[in-house]
Amino acid sequence: MPVARPESSDSRTRIIAHVDLDCFYVQVEQRKQPELRGLPTAVVQYNEWKGGALIAVSYEARKLGVSRHMRGDDAKEVCPQIHLVQVPVARGKADLNIYRNAGSEVVSILARKGRCERASIDEVYLDLTDSAEAMLRETPPESLESINEEARKSHILGLKSEDANDAQENASKWLRRSDANHQDKLLACGALIVAELRMEVLKEAQFTCSAGVAHNKMLAKLVSGMNKPAQQTVVPSSSVKRFLESLPIKKMKQLGGKLGTSLQTDLGVNTVGDLLRFSEEKLQERFGINTGTWLWNIARGINGEEVQGRLLPKSHGAGKSFPGPRALKTIASVQHWLNQLCDELNERICFDLDQNKRIAHTLTVYASAYKSCDSESYKKFPSKSCPLRYGTAKIQEDAFNLFQAGLREYIGSPGVKTLGHHHNGWGITSLSVSASKIVAIPSGTGSITKYFHEQYASPSSKETQDTFVKKDHAIITASESYSELEPTDQLQPDNNVPCVGIPWKEQDSSCSSTVQTKDGSGKGASPPLPSGSGCCSPVNQTASASRGTILKFLKSYNLSCPTPNQQNVEMVKGSQPPSCSSLEENQALLPRRNLAEIRSNDGSYNLDQNAQRAWNYKIDEIDHSIVDELPSEIQDEIRVWLQARQQPGMVKRPSIIKRGSIAHYFSPARNT
DNA sequence: ACGGATCACACA
DNA sequence: TTGTGTGAT
């Protein structure tokens, strides 16, 4: 249920924008295939059944009668010339990465002019208050001779005009009114800023978007879609009352579902205006104190929700549904799909770690299921979570265990015996895994190093602690100096602009983490080998571990993360001496910036001198494609193992190898 | 037997 | 905290 935000104590008038990309998935595909621009186009996923489901429709196609909620076949029927583009598929499921990344591009442009909140893959809120105030002080619109063309095309809510030309003329005059009140002048500034931003998005990312500009999030969101595509709408506070009066209650954000229905059926409220008849107390009595106040406020256009300064998602999820007859009925099929989902999830959290220096702490498995027998007493399949350990194999293992725990609970004690391999009674209609509790790591303190350091800590391992203390000293000093040299590489936790792919796109794609298996049926987690086509990485891997290398390392291996309550990074950054295994084992998996942190003062890498320990490796879990990036002597060493593994009778046994050069690239498996 | 795949958030 | 439910795109 929605909740009333206390009006911020600082009650100065805010300028809020809501920016909405027009039929975003279509635009992403049209940027990839410019010949589709201007043509009726739609994006579909899963083409097998009735031509797939439309998830985005271009405005040209809409004009020709195509709407969302249509199947691909229906669209072809009403509009034979429509171009249908399929969502990419990886690991047998829809892969939305290209859209997520394109959305991040836009966010990083929009974030330049104020606090920015990524509301969804194609929507953003902006708090432009500061920028608008600055503009009003320095270059107020009334002082301009002419208004930027894009801003001139703004729609001013409540401003009446006869024809289209008249509208532009009126809007232009409204924006420059010298007799406007302070609020409206700020709004005009906001409109100019948003118009500018939208032009930048178009120029730099080649996407059009629409926007709403108002004094709060609710109003900005309400109008951002009023004039689409590629237009913007401004809400002067003088027009709010009239606007809301006749607005159907279900159009309000948060009232599109059961709560809105309850307002209609229980209270006879069909428009926002109808809500005005109820006192705050009455609404609180009916809907609770928070929701009641919230309703009373929104009926009057009051909404104190702040724009959260958040450019990155708070969780990552990978899921797939198995409708009707496709329901999963064996443990083996569930495990297969869980493995696919976990592989994608691992790739995404590793990408997040590498790009944004964030670590996910919780793994959750969700499922929905039906029971064919015992069909009454419908039960929900319970979701289960546990601490998240990095690495495909670990996530797969944990996810499977979580699923089995859920299944046992779902079936209940009578069915426990039949939990086995043959189908009985139950079917899984959807599966998903997600990574949450993602925390940013402060930069420049060596805390990434220390974090993973701790993850490897085993209570039994009492190493020579004094050497670690010395090393950590080296870490901090090195890191500090590095930060001063490269201030732009600093991560601002509250304004962490995602740097989309830039370091990646320059690389050979076979080396980037974004390589994806197009083959969904594959069972193994190992991606295709880079096939001698020149991998990005040179010989001297030690000093220049590329991000691609790191990513692939993480993709295939384990950063174990057994501590459940590890959110407090400050704790990690504290002064207690590291309690665990050696430092250099983390080198290969740290992002480039942090490699600097583990240099010692003389600039050379600080390798463990206690070279006596043996290390465990699970060869099965080594990503083959990483091999080509390693120094040649190590490549040879690994190929020997891999060949040995392929011979029958020698598989599955974890190899024990003496710590040597290879230890710089692979960290030890945890003893379990 | 189809809105699929993701997200956020309030509440218990 | 973990898990559930709602609502959104």
Automatic annotation (TrEMBL):
What is the species listed in this Swiss-Prot or TrEMBL entry? Salix koriyanagi
Question: InterPro entries recorded for this chain?
Answer: DNA/RNA_pol_sf (IPR043502), DNA_pol_Y-fam_lit_finger_sf (IPR036775), DNA_pol_Y-fam_little_finger (IPR017961), DNA_polymerase_eta (IPR052230), Rev_trsase/Diguanyl_cyclase (IPR043128), UmuC (IPR001126)
The ranges of region (Disordered) come to 510-537
Q: Which GO terms describe its cellular component?
A: nucleus; replication fork; site of double-strand break
Q: Of which family is this protein a member?
A: Belongs to the DNA polymerase type-Y family.
Where does this chain mainly localize? nucleus
The cofactor required is:
Mn(2+); Mg(2+)
User: What biological-process GO terms show up in the record?
Assistant: DNA repair; error-prone translesion synthesis; response to UV
| UniProt domain UmuC: residue ranges | 16-256
Q: What is this protein called?
A: DNA polymerase eta
Q: Which UniProt keywords apply?
A: DNA damage, DNA repair, Magnesium, Metal-binding, Nucleotidyltransferase, Nucleus, Transferase
| One Pfam family per UniProt | POLH-Rev1_HhH
Compartment annotation:
Nucleus
